[in-house]
TrEMBL record:
<dbReference type="GO" id="GO:0005739">
    <property type="term" value="C:mitochondrion"/>
</dbReference>
<dbReference type="InterPro" id="IPR050926">
    <property type="entry name" value="Aconitase/IPM_isomerase"/>
</dbReference>
<dbReference type="InterPro" id="IPR001030">
    <property type="entry name" value="Acoase/IPM_deHydtase_lsu_aba"/>
</dbReference>
<dbReference type="InterPro" id="IPR036008">
    <property type="entry name" value="Aconitase_4Fe-4S_dom"/>
</dbReference>
<dbReference type="GO" id="GO:0006099">
    <property type="term" value="P:tricarboxylic acid cycle"/>
</dbReference>
<keyword id="KW-0408">Iron</keyword>
<dbReference type="InterPro" id="IPR015932">
    <property type="entry name" value="Aconitase_dom2"/>
</dbReference>
<dbReference type="GO" id="GO:0051539">
    <property type="term" value="F:4 iron, 4 sulfur cluster binding"/>
</dbReference>
<feature type="domain" description="Aconitase A/isopropylmalate dehydratase small subunit swivel">
    <location>
        <begin position="603"/>
        <end position="730"/>
    </location>
</feature>
<dbReference type="InterPro" id="IPR000573">
    <property type="entry name" value="AconitaseA/IPMdHydase_ssu_swvl"/>
</dbReference>
<protein>
    <recommendedName>
        <fullName>Aconitate hydratase, mitochondrial</fullName>
        <ecNumber>4.2.1.-</ecNumber>
    </recommendedName>
</protein>
<keyword id="KW-0496">Mitochondrion</keyword>
<dbReference type="Pfam" id="PF00694">
    <property type="entry name" value="Aconitase_C"/>
</dbReference>
<dbReference type="GO" id="GO:0005829">
    <property type="term" value="C:cytosol"/>
</dbReference>
<dbReference type="GO" id="GO:0003994">
    <property type="term" value="F:aconitate hydratase activity"/>
</dbReference>
<dbReference type="InterPro" id="IPR015928">
    <property type="entry name" value="Aconitase/3IPM_dehydase_swvl"/>
</dbReference>
<keyword id="KW-0456">Lyase</keyword>
Length: 804
């Protein structure tokens, strides 16, 4: 057995005693004689978990804590510093973690790889994958859309494929599937820790992993082998009892929870599910719930490993993973007797910071929206709400699938009600789109006849890609921008304008079954649980309760060979494909370091009101084509933000009173060397993990962002790019700052020099009057993050370290 590397302060005698104790435990195991009997991933987890138990003793741990702490680079350093000797870790400790792998979707992978290339390393320190899923526009159908997408984006796909070959990354070609579904099918195993450059990466928590959505700079930290830092999250426990029935689905659980917690309620928390109700859920159902944990701001979400988890691993041809997980859970570790084994569930007696109990037996279908995923309405009340709010009663489209809800279970449940409607002679009255989550899902549904059922009903099967969910949708129904209309989707996010670029499209989120039934009615006021439709022969038809299969009766069909993963060792001779004249890709220039003083002379570019998401700061849709070209994509910065002082969208005023779009004015100020800041309200940067929402303002001259509160991923992304996120101590001070005011920082430079320790204030000089106001602000800058900001960006520091 490889001996555990204890900290030197433990002493030689203690080290030897501990190693002897471990050997005795191993010798007493019925199944294994030494630690090398475990596969490398679990051997590493075993060794780190043993260190965690040595440091924390018999302290009760949640499942999330066991996996998270067992990925620490230095267990003692992270768990014992500023934590009351390990008794007060949550919310205080700065965890420095070593993830097992990184997964990147094509839109965010471009900037992540451009940053990694700046470090001049021959290969990544840990395994990683690239998934080409974001750049395919959904329109006419899978074959036409995929061909058009490849033709339009070949330059980007060539870049990503060549980078994968050079650095030894797995490459999933366009059409292979959406990153989260592909990761669940191929990479996720219990106990793994992964980073994903997409906010919905926690989807893999349905298979008992810790998977966290991050920006590209965070991914690069892990790819170069540096520890990745995270403030130790608090743990929100959700205890499930009962069992779902009839029309209720796993989607309804997370829609209901989003309504309870709001889009900010999970910030700073990992959501961990437990209770007897967990055992009644499918693995893919648990993944759906974890996927949408992003909509409540959670760091990630996780379920225990169950029999359904093992069945899913077997169905996806990973029988060995089932054996490995069983072997690991039966392998003795360190600590008191009840802690001798790492079980993929919380310790008995583990405490949660908050607990919510949900009885699945009483859960009814929910519909969330429009324009925010936490506006939750029970189906039984939705008709009344639609009429009271004067939302459109006509449904223009129903869209099912995506990374959130394209499982075999989802699709066969939908199939059951589509078959019933077909037998009654009914067709959908609204346009009906189906997005398979992966080639494996598509091929299996085709093999088993499900896709043919949808197509016979008039459904349009789109490519195995994100498509309309992330704004890649070319509508065929004649709905123009500015037209108020309603769509229902089984997607995970529904910000204004997100799906089709029309700010007046109202996207309501629901389960695939509810979306499909309402598409048949063509109405937002139809309740399939209680209402009936009239068939062509004048009869009354009521949908039966949906039913489906957890998984296929035989293992999933792998699908077409062209969509299989391309895995290869690093090839130093491979040339990464970037044309010097490209409008899609551009090498990065390093940002300037922080000055040797406090910031002064900053001007408020714009004061923003209301929801300001990452979609607001850096829109997707047609702008995705510029994800690898920072100067070009910066032309969309804050282009749907609402000016708090005028109520106008995408309008800002220069100091001379001239009117501009927000990105135009930012560019003008960049050319004048005028640094600036933005003032905003709550949950600034809510939504996706896209680091462009931090990169673009930084490129255009932003030095600080001041708001009432931040979304977690975006706050981290800002610091990684050298922009300082500051929150108002007194929220009413938001009213004291206006566009054009001059701002200087007080104490910021000293705070950064002191590794994140110290108080900061803003000295605001009012435009016009010259009145000076001192406004206190808060920060959450760690020692490492202070170093990033002083260096100008995390990349500046990482590339310097890599070169050394």
């Amino acid at each position: 057995m490889r001996p555990i590397d204890l900290a030197s302060r433990s002493g030689v005698a203690l080290r030897r005693a501990f190693q002897a104790q471990q050997l005795r435990r191993v010798a007493g195991s019925r199944q294994y004689s030494n630690v090398t009997s475990l596969p490398p991933t679990y051997e590493k987890l075993h060794n780190k978990y043993s260190e965690v138990r040595r440091v924390l003793g018999a302290q009760r741990l949640t499942l999330a804590e066991k996996i998270l702490y067992s990925h620490l680079d230095n267990v003692e350093e992270s768990l014992l510093n500023n934590t009351n000797n390990g008794r007060d870790i949550r919310g205080k400790a700065n965890l420095k973690l070593k993830p097992d792998r990184v997964n990147m979707q094509d839109a965010s992978a471009q900037m992540a790889l451009l940053q990694f290339m700046s470090c001049n390393l021959p290969q990544t320190a840990i395994p990683a994958s690239i998934h080409c899923d974001h750049l395919i526009v959904g329109s006419k159908g899978a074959d036409d859309d995929l061909q058009a997408g490849i033709q339009t984006n070949h330059e980007v796909f060539d870049f990503l494929e060549s980078a994968a070959k050079k650095y030894g990354l797995d490459f999933w070609a366009p059409g292979a599937g959406i990153i989260h579904q592909t990761v669940l099918e191929n990479y996720a195993i219990p106990g793994l820790m992964m980073l994903g450059t997409d906010s919905h990466s926690p989807n893999a928590g349905g298979l008992s992993t810790i998977t966290i959505g991050v920006g590209g700079a965070d991914a690069v930290e892990a790819l170069v082998g540096a520890p990745w830092e995270l403030k130790a999250p608090k743990i929100l426990g959700v205890r499930l009892t009962g069992k779902l029935s009839n029309w209720a689905s796993p989607k309804d659980l997370i829609l209901h929870l989003a309504g309870l917690l709001t889009v900010r309620g999970g910030t700073g928390y990992i959501v961990e599910y437990s209770g007897p109700g967990v055992e009644t859920l499918s693995c893919t159902g648990m993944a759906t719930i974890c996927n949408m944990g992003a909509e409540i701001g959670a760091t990630t979400s996780i379920f225990p490993y169950t029999e359904a988890s093992a069945r899913y691993l077997e169905a996806t041809r990973r029988e060995q993973a089932v054996k490995n997980a069983a072997a690991f859970q039966n392998f003795p570790g360190a600590g008191a007797s009840e802690d001798a084994y790492f079980k993929f569930k919380a310790d008995e007696g583990a405490q949660y910071d908050e607990v919510i109990e949900i009885d699945l037996s009483k859960l009814e279908p929910h519909i969330n929206g429009p324009h925010t995923p936490d506006l939750s309405t029970p189906l039984s009340q939705f008709k009344t709400t639609v009429q009271e709010q004067k939302w459109p009663e006509k449904l223009s489209a129903g869209l099912i699938g995506s990374c959130t809800n394209s499982s075999y279970e989802d699709m066969t449940r939908v199939e059951s009600i589509v078959r019933a409607a077909e037998e009654a002679g009914l067709k959908p009255k609204a346009d009906f789109y189906v997005t398979p989550g992966s080639e494996q899902i598509r091929a299996t549904l085709e093999r088993d006849g499900t896709l043919q059922t949808f197509e016979k009903a008039g459904g349009i099967v789109l490519s195995n890609a994100c498509g309309p969910c992330i704004g890649q949708w070319k509508r065929q129904d004649g709905v123009e921008k500015g037209t108020v209309n309603a769509i229902l989707t089984s997607y995970n996010r529904n910000f204004r304008g997100r799906n089709d670029g029309n700010l007046d499209t109202m996207n309501f989120l629901a389960s695939p079954e509810i979306v499909t039934a309402m598409a048949y009615a063509g109405s937002t006021t139809f309740n399939p649980v209680t209402d009936s439709l009239t068939t062509p022969d004048g009869k009354e038809f009521k949908f039966p309760a949906p039913h489906g299969l957890e998984g296929p009766k035989t293992p999933f069909d792998i699908g077409k060979d062209v969509f299989k993963v391309a895995s290869q060792p690093p090839n130093p001779n491979e040339k990464v494909a970037i044309a010097p004249t490209s409008e899609r890709l551009a090498l990065l220039e390093p940002f300037e370091p922080f000055p040797n003083s406090d910031l002064s002379g900053l001007k408020v570019l714009v004061k923003v009101s209301g929801k300001c998401t990452t979609d607001t700061i850096s829109a997707a849709g047609p702008w995705l084509k510029y994800k690898g070209h920072l100067p070009n994509i910066s032309a969309n910065t804050l282009n749907t933000a609402v000016n708090a002082e005028t109520g106008e969208v995408n309008v800002a005023y220069d100091l001379d009173g001239s009117k501009h779009t927000i990105p135009e004015l930012a560019k003008l100020w960049k050319e004048r060397n005028q640094p600036w800041l933005v003032v905003a309200e709550h949950n600034y940067g809510e939504g996706s993990a896209r680091e462009h929402a931090a990169l673009q303002p930084r490129y255009l001259g932003a030095r600080i962002i001041v708001c009432k509160s931040f979304a977690r991923i975006h706050e981290t992304n800002l610091k990684k790019q050298g922009v300082v996120p500051l929150t108002l101590v007194n929220e009413q001070d938001y009213d004291k700052i206006a566009a054009g005011d001059e701002v200087a920082t007080v104490g910021l430079y000293d705070m950064l020099q002191n590794g994140g320790q110290g108080e900061v204030q803003l000295k605001v000089t009012k435009r016009g009057t010259g009145e000076e106001i001192l406004i206190p602000v808060k920060h959450q800058v760690s020692k490492d993050q202070a170093g990033f900001i002083l260096a100008g960006s995390a990349l500046n520091l990482l590339s310097k370290g890599a070169s050394a």
